[in-house]
Design a protein that fits this description.
Elements: H1 2-52, H2 55-68, E1 72-78, E2 84-88, H3 92-97, E3 100-101, E4 104-105, E5 117-123, E6 126-137, E7 140-149, H4 153-203, H5 217-257, E8 261-265, E9 271-274, H6 276-282, H7 295-298, H8 301-316, H9 323-329, E10 331-337, E11 343-353, E12 360-369, H10 371-408, H11 414-446, E13 449-451, E14 453-455, H12 457-474, E15 478-483, E16 490-492, H13 494-511, E17 517-525, E18 532-539, H14 572-582, E19 588-592, E20 596-604, H15 608-611, E21 617-619
Length: about 625
């Protein structure tokens, strides 16, 4: 606007000054013509009088001529040498100011003395046109007539007024431009700048931005609308942040608590998310700065070798949009990781797509610890091998001794027959135990339901003692029990508690050398919630090493697998633990190699009030 105003004002001022100059030039030209004509007229009338030398008449004629013509500034007469011999007005000072120097007339230079000459000069009253006319009479030059012509007052006043008005208009325009710029800066530009800053802050996410300017009208409505918009955005932002924070917290909790390792990679194979399970499996607990780094560089060497190429191919490969394609193309690897504790993991790779399923956003890695599964499969293989061997051996012995009795009965003595029958009976018992373990395993996996009720532990303990008394006597063991007088009944299942004690006492008898002792203790203990009865099975056997004490309750695990000296399937203690867990208790042990072992667990005391309630049930 300022530039346009400048151009327009300069153009108009230029046109105005051009017009003023044109008018002034035309006025000067008219004054020159008028002065020339007037000089020629006066010279023609005065020349004869001057030739006669009658200066009085010249003076009178010139005075009348001067008084009757308002445009004449002065009239001077000079001889041929330029010396003034008469002038109007008569004031010497005025005449001297009117181009007389020592009363001599300075004429413009010209080669032709008969021509009329014109010039202009500035005076306090304005520009004056000087007309020099030669006084000629009968072809002889008598001197020079000089007439000063005043400018046309009307034209001068009009041009000066036009010039002054133009200058005033020019100054007014620029004063308005300056005032407008100041007004614009104060009233319009500042609020607009404030709004611009506010919009930028809003765009950057700062929804607390407000514009506090006291303006009314449309600008005030605009500021009010902006603040209202910012307030609404802030409210929506807070709600969204709360929702997103809650969802993120749920997702983080879910991801961190899942049993499988979860890793999320971007398209550059850099880590975006790693849960605690994955950190533990890959040994990343001590590494804090993992997010944003190259995942392949931090993977264990075994994974790096097998996953580098599949990860690159999956990022650059075909986009799999359907669930069926994802499942069919998912990469799965089973890798054994070396370390303090060898670990076997299963790694599953899947593409992560955007909402429209048009672009690959990254790769999701699911890492499953299948060490237990591998160990269980290995233990099952050992179990099948052991059971096959254990079943085949007693069956072969039974068949051999029975065939011998059948074929050579008459040739055998009574002692030999008795020995053969005892051996067949022992192998039958051995075979029965193996079959019972297999049946117990089948029952554990079939989830059979049992009802809990009142159980008298003294009956269970007496039955167990009678059952194993013969085996203990054969090994010269001291098998006994100690029951606290007045021991209350417990919540449980008679057959299952009998099986617990059968397995614990049987192991104690089997692993205790001759001359040792096996004792069953039953007594009351105080508990924070309710009274309980503790059952202990203590022996003076070979003991269990600390490295095996946690593993002996796993299925198919046998300590004797390491020494291969004693029989067993590795299911007894696993069955014991499962049954005790279903009784809402826990199996504990204290053992020292070469000294002995004590297993103990607690059972809740049976109460009449609880008996009136629906019976408890357990599923095994």
């Amino acid at each position: 606007m300022a530039a346009a105003t400048l151009v327009v004002s300069l153009l108009m001022s230029g046109l105005t000054f051009w017009a003023v100059n044109t008018i002034q030039q035309d006025a000067r030209l008219n004054d020159t013509r008028f002065g020339t004509d007037l000089g020629l007229l006066l010279a023609a009338n005065v020349a004869p009088i001057v030739a006669e030398g009658n200066l009085n008449e010249v003076a009178q004629f010139s005075t009348r001529f001067y008084n009757t013509t308002s445009s004449i500034k002065y009239i001077l007469y000079a001889d041929q040498q330029g010396k003034i011999f008469f002038g109007i007005p008569y004031s010497r000072a005025e005449v001297k100011d009117s181009l007389t120097i020592d009363r001599n007339l300075e004429l413009p230079k010209s080669d032709d003395i008969t021509l009329t000459r014109v010039r202009q000069h500035n005076s306090p009253g304005g520009d004056v046109v000087d007309v020099f006319v030669p006084l000629m009479h009968e072809g002889k030059k008598l001197g020079t007539l000089a007439i000063g012509i005043n400018p046309n007052p009307t034209v001068t006043v009009s041009s000066n007024l036009t010039r002054d008005v133009t200058i005033a208009v020019f100054i007014s325009i620029w004063a308005m431009v300056i005032l407008g710029a100041v007004f614009n800066a104060i009233i319009i530009t500042r609020p607009i700048k404030e709004l611009l800053v506010g919009v930028k802050n809003i765009a950057s996410g700062n929804f607390k931005q407000r514009v506090e300017l006291p303006f009314g009208g449309e600008l005030g409505e605009l500021i009010y609308s902006f603040n209202d918009m910012a307030q609404r955005l802030e409210s929506y932002d807070e709600q969204n942040i709360e929702e997103l924070t809650a969802q993120k917290a749920k997702l983080d909790t879910l991801v961190s608590t899942i049993a499988d390792g979860a890793i999320l990679l971007d398209t550059q194979l850099k880590l975006i998310l790693v849960n605690s399970t994955a950190r533990r499996l890959f040994g990343w607990e001590s590494k804090d700065m993992l997010i944003g780094e190259d995942a392949i560089e931090h993977l264990p060497i075994e994974l790096k070798q097998q996953l580098s190429v599949p990860l690159q191919e999956m990022i650059k490969g075909k986009i799999l949009k359907s669930q069926e394609e994802q499942e069919s193309a998912a990469e799965e690897f089973t890798i054994s990781l070396s370390g303090a504790r060898p670990t076997t993991v299963r790694v599953l790779l899947r593409q992560v797509l955007d909402q429209q399923k048009d672009d690959i956003r990254g790769i999701a890695m699911t890492v499953q610890d299948i060490t237990k599964e591998v160990e269980l499969n290995e233990a099952k293989s050992h179990f099948i091998s052991n059971v096959s061997h254990e079943l085949r051996t007693p069956l072969f012995n039974i068949k051999s001794f029975i065939e011998t009795l059948y074929e050579y009965n008459d040739d055998l003595t009574d002692t030999e027959r008795k020995e053969f029958l005892e051996t067949a009976n022992h192998e039958t018992d051995r075979l029965t135990r193996l079959v019972n373990d297999v049946l117990d395993l089948s029952r554990l996996e079939s989830s059979k339901t049992y009802h809990l009720n009142s159980v008298d532990l003294s009956q269970v303990v007496e039955q167990i003692t009678r059952s194993h008394q013969l085996s203990a006597r054969d090994k010269q063991l001291d098998l006994r029990y100690s029951i606290e007088p007045g021991l209350p009944s417990v919540w449980g299942h008679y057959d299952l508690i009998l099986q617990i004690l059968t397995n614990l006492v049987g192991n104690a008898v089997k692993f205790t050398p001759s001359g040792g002792s096996v004792v069953i203790f039953c007594y009351c203990v105080e508990d924070e919630l309710e009274p309980k009865v503790r059952i202990e099975v203590s022996d003076t056997g070979i003991g269990i090493g600390s490295e095996d004490q946690e593993a002996i309750f796993d299925r198919f695990y046998r300590v004797e697998n390491r020494v291969h000296t004693l029989e067993g399937t590795g299911l007894g203690l696993s069955i014991v633990k499962n049954i005790i867990d279903k009784h809402y208790s826990k199996i504990n042990l204290v053992s020292e190699v070469g000294i002995g072992t004590t297993f103990w667990f607690d059972l809740a005391v049976y109460q009449e009030v609880k008996a009136a309630l629906p019976q408890k049930t357990i599923t095994i």
